[in-house]
Structure formats: structure tokens, C-alpha cells
Specification:
Blueprint (H helix, E strand, L loop, with lengths): L8 H25 L3 H4 L4 E6 L5 E4 L7 H14 L10 E4 L12 E10 L2 E11 L21 E5 L2 E2 L1 H9 L4 H29 L1 H24 L4 E11 L2 E14 L2 E5 L15 H15 L14 E4 L17 H16 L15 E8 L6 E8 L27 H7 L2 E8 L15 E7 L4 E6 L20 E4 L10 E4 L5 E4 L14 H9 L5 H6 L5
Parallel strand pairs: 10-11
Antiparallel strand pairs: 1-2, 1-5, 3-4, 3-6, 4-5, 6-7, 8-9, 9-10, 12-13, 12-16, 14-15, 15-19, 16-18, 17-19
Pfam families: Hydantoinase_B
Organism: Psychromarinibacter halotolerans
Protein name: Hydantoinase B/oxoprolinase family protein
Length: 545
């Protein structure tokens, strides 16, 4: 009798939960062992397990956008590697958007094969954002940092010093990188050992049969969820702006639902630009999968099975499916907007499930020579803001949303690790889009260098075109940068701050849902009492008497 003939639903569920636990443990191990604040505090990392065919079996609930890199490096590694020469203990790294399966160069993936009884049984992978590449151009990818195709950093468990030295030579903060690399290696080793223990407990045949059953189950759940969406063709288009590019970009999406399948068509989006805004196709996949996963049954397993009823079409060479040598550093700007657009398109069919538009990602980067240590440092943080209001709930305040989902660097950690002072960190009054349900509030964070001159790079999207409201809800507030008196104006997002000068980032607010005059009066009074809205807004917009 074969393994799948004896497989019962309870065993499948137990194995599914075990696999989910393994990837969550991998993510936690990476955060606990990492050196840089960007990983251990902001949690800008992810983990996943793949089967031998390259299908994602389990993905940690961390950064949805990272799935594009995790998916891409495995495909590229298999394509470029003589699999007969693969050995236990081999560890690949990569980051390149066009040859390494990455989505931008700061995100470096560690990929390791899992062997059991001398046979390849799975792959484990993790990804972490390394805040290292600063003071670089973004006209094409050659300016953005070191490009790493899939290469073996470890061969049969032995560190390849020449490869490590090559990578570290191209890093501006090598001590951080080497220690974060060790954390990534350890994370994969934990995942490998956990998976091997599942092989020992259940046997490889039963484990693989359960994985296939989980893929089929996710497909059935996805098809059932798509079937619940009314058939139809739902287009949406909007203008998009960012301080990274001078022109307004007009983005388009068309969502077609037909029975138990759904198609996303991005024909009509602009050509790729000479800026870091461009997305490779795996980023687009990650965005679409996020939208579908969040709108159908949330208990649908996060594996490749739910991808099967989804079709994605995008013109090659466009900003959403870029060709080399396009720059890709700020691909999250367009990615965030596309997610909101897909939600807005589907609001025509399922308005009760869809949020209004949310904040973008405003980036705050400072670097220089740390006067305490004499070493070069990099502080880099992508700032959240206001989530769009939901159909029956306010949007969340001061958070990352959609594809990014990372945390902030606490003030105490930031000031301990960098020669910087946080002078303000607060929610911005009247920044959430008014509505029956209010959009989430934006963040203001003001930072100054201590005892040195720092190079600052500040900016992001939604400086001219705000996050939109739905069903009569108002738009959220715009993002902007505030420089202190005497500080030089930013030129192409860059400037220098001396001791005593400061720069503040105001992120953008989320859009509201519904007529603000229909908002519950007690909620309006509470917002006013807590300083979320001003007296003027309470009276003139919400109609509070």
C-alpha cells in the first residue's frame, strides 16, 4: 500500500502545521541571532521551505514581498547548477534581480538543499535585508551595489573564504554583514534539521505525499474563494508619484474573475524607468498572491497550491516586469501602489472585504563616520504610515502595510547603535483620511546626527497624489520631508546634516471609507479627545456640533 493511500486528513493537518512551525522557527532564529538592527528589530527577513520541484511548501508570515526573491533564487539555482554535484552542506547565496533570482540587491538569500538518506528531499531558504548599499545611483542596476548570482558560500559545510571575502569587500559595513550572514546560515540549519526530523518521524514518502495533499488542498480553498467573487472584468487605473522620479506615472490593472479562476492584466503600465522603481516579474507575482490570499479564506495554506488558479500578464520591459539592466532598489514603491490598485479594482465586486488605499514606504537613511568608533555606519529605515480604512473598521495607525509588513527600529536601539538622536517620533494629527471609518494616521520621525556630519537620503511616494478613500471616504495626507533651519535643501533626495541640524520624515496617511458625517459621534469625540483629529476637522469635516 502506498503512502498516499494510507494518508488520512488528520496526518496531513499535523504535518502542515509542523511545516508552518518550522518556517516560523527559522524566522525567529534569524531575528534572534542577527547583528544589525534592521533584521533583529525591524524583522526585515523571511523564510520558506520548497519541495524538490521548486514549489513553496510553507512560507513564514513575515514580509510578503520577499517571496519574489525566495521563489526566484531556487529557479535560478536549479537552472544554473549541475544537480548531480549537489552535496549536503552546500549553501547558495544570491541577490541579483536578473541572474540571482532576487528583487533588489539589499535582500540577500541563503538557500540550502535538504538531504535525507543521501537523497535530496527539500530546500530551505531565508532572506534578510542588509542596509549596506548607500550613496549609490539608480539609473541602472550596475550602480546599485554588488550583484550576486547563485554561488556556493559553503561547499559540503565548509565556508568558501574567497567568496565571502569578495562579498565583504563590496560591503560598506562588513562587520554587520558577516555576523548577519552567520545568522542566516544558522536559520537554514535549524530548518534543515527540523525537516529531517519530520522525515525520520513520518518517512519521506508519507511526508512528500502530505505536502502534495496540502498543495491540492490550498488549490481547492483558493478556487472556492475565487468562486465566491462575482464573475466580471474589473479595471482600475491611477496616477502615482514618488520623489525618486520627477514624472507622474500612470498605472493600470485589469482583474478578470471567471468561475474559479482569476486573471490580473497589467497591460498599459509605463515602460521601465531609469530609476530604482522597476519591478521584476517575481515581485509582481508576490503582490498578486498577497492580494488573492488576503481576500479569500485566510486559512488557505501559504503554499504554491493556491497559485494555480491565478494568471498574471504583464508586458516585458515595463515598470512591473522589467528587463535588465533596470534598477530595482525602490521596487516597493510601485509594489505597494499596485496592491492598493488591485484592491480598488475588486472593490467593485466585493466592497465589504477591501480596504481603502494605504501609505507608501518613506525611506529615511543616514550614514557617516561614527565618532564613537571611527567606523562607517549606515542607518536605514523604511517608515510605515496609515493603513486604509476597512469596510467596518478604522485603518491601523503608524504601521507598514501590504507587501512590506516590517516593524520599526525602537528609539533606544537606534540611538544605541548609531550616533543619532531621535528628537520626535509621533503620530500626525488629521493625517488619516476622514470617513465613516477613518484612515490610519501617518508618522513623523525627526532625527539629527550627534558629533558628526551625516549624509541623509530621504523620500518616498505619495508626495503629490494621496492614498484614496472609498465609498465617499476622504484621501489620506501626503508625505513630505521637513528640514531644520540652516540645513541645506535636499538635492535628488540627498543632503548633508551637521551636528545640531535635523531632518524629519512625515509619512502618508491612509484613505477613509464612507461619508465622515456618518461616523459614530462617540468615535469622533474620542478621536478629538486623543488628538487624532483637530477641532476644525471635527466640526467642518465630521460635522460634530
Amino acid at each position: 500500500m502506498t503512502a498516499d493511500q494510507t494518508l488520512d486528513p488528520i496526518t496531513v493537518e499535523v504535518i502542515g502545521n509542523a511545516l508552518s512551525t518550522v518556517v516560523e522557527e527559522m524566522g525567529r532564529a534569524l531575528m534572534r541571532a542577527s547583528y544589525s538592527a534592521n533584521i533583529k528589530e525591524r524583522r526585515d527577513c523571511s523564510a520558506a521551505i520548497f519541495d524538490t520541484e521548486g514549489h513553496v511548501i510553507a512560507q513564514a508570515q513575515q514580509i510578503p514581498l520577499h517571496f519574489g526573491s525566495l521563489l526566484g533564487i531556487l529557479q535560478e539555482t536549479v537552472k544554473r547548477t549541475d544537480m548531480s554535484q549537489l552535496r549536503p552542506g552546500d549553501v547558495f547565496i544570491g541577490n541579483d534581480a536578473f541572474t540571482g533570482g532576487g528583487t533588489h540587491l539589499n535582500d540577500i538569500v541563503f538557500l540550502e538543499p535538504v538531504f535525507y538518506d543521501d537523497a535530496l528531499v527539500a530546500w530551505v531558504a531565508n532572506i534578510a535585508h542588509h542596509s549596506d548599499f548607500v550613496d549609490r545611483g539608480h539609473a541602472h542596476i550596475f550602480q546599485e551595489g554588488l550583484r550576486i548570482p547563485p554561488v556556493k558560500l559553503y561547499r559540503e559545510g565548509v565556508l568558501q573564504d574567497d567568496v565571502m571575502n569578495l562579498v565583504l569587500l563590496n560591503c560598506q559595513v562588513p562587520d554587520e554583514r558577516v555576523n548577519d550572514f552567520r545568522a542566516q546560515y544558522s536559520s537554514n540549519r535549524q530548518g534543515l534539521q527540523r525537516y529531517q526530523s519530520l522525515c525520520e518521524r513520518y518517512g519521506v514518502a508519507k511526508l512528500h505525499a502530505a505536502q502534495n495533499a496540502l498543495l491540492d488542498y490550498a488549490e481547492r480553498k483558493a478556487r472556492a474563494g475565487i468562486t465566491a467573487i462575482p464573475d466580471g472584468v474589473y479595471p482600475f487605473e491611477c496616477d502615482f508619484d514618488t520623489s525618486l522620479w520627477p514624472d507622474i506615472l500612470h498605472l493600470k490593472v485589469l482583474v478578470e474573475v471567471s468561475g474559479d479562476e482569476i486573471r490580473f492584466d497589467f497591460d498599459g503600465c509605463p515602460d521601465q524607468t531609469r530609476s530604482g522603481l522597476n519591478m521584476v516579474f517575481t515581485v509582481l507575482q508576490a503582490c498578486v498572491y498577497l492580494v488573492v490570499k488576503s481576500l479569500i479564506d485566510r486559512d488557505t495554506p501559504a503554499n504554491a497550491g493556491f497559485h494555480r488558479p491565478i494568471r498574471i500578464e504583464a508586458p516585458y520591459g515595463s515598470i512591473v516586469n522589467a528587463a535588465p539592466p533596470a534598477a530595482v532598489y525602490s521596487r516597493h514603491d510601485v509594489a505597494q501602489r499596485l496592491v492598493d490598485m488591485m484592491y480598488a479594482a475588486l472593490a467593485q465586486a466585493i466592497p465589504e472585504r477591501v480596504p481603502a488605499a494605504s501609505t507608501g514606504v518613506t525611506v529615511q537613511t543616514m550614514s557617516g563616520i561614527n565618532p564613537r568608533t571611527g567606523a562607517f555606519y549606515v542607518y536605514n529605515e523604511s517608515m510605515g504610515g496609515g493603513m486604509g480604512a476597512r469596510a467596518t473598521l478604522d485603518g491601523l495607525d503608524g504601521v507598514h502595510v501590504n507587501t512590506t509588513n516590517s516593524a520599526n527600529i525602537p528609539v533606544e536601539a537606534l540611538e544605541t547603535e548609531h550616533p543619532l538622536r531621535v528628537e520626535a517620533y509621533e503620530l500626525v494629527q488629521d493625517s488619516g483620511g476622514p470617513g465613516r471609518f477613518r484612515g490610519g494616521m501617518a508618522i513623523r520621525r525627526k532625527i539629527s546626527p550627534v558629533g558628526h556630519a551625516a549624509t541623509a537620503n530621504l523620500g518616498g511616494p505619495l508626495t503629490r497624489i494621496p492614498a484614496w478613500g472609498l465609498d465617499g471616504g476622504h484621501d489620506g495626507s501626503l508625505s513630505h520631508i521637513e528640514m531644520s533651519a540652516g540645513a541645506a535643501a535636499l538635492k535628488e533626495r540627498n543632503g548633508v546634516l551637521t551636528d545640531g541640524q535635523s531632518a524629519a520624515v512625515h509619512t502618508s496617511g491612509g484613505g477613509g471609507q464612507g461619508d465622515p458625517k456618518l461616523r459614530d459621534r462617540d468615535l469622533v469625540r474620542r478621536d478629538l479627545r486623543e488628538g487624532r483629529i483637530s477641532e476644525k476637522a471635527a466640526k467642518e469635516i465630521y460635522g460634530l456640533e
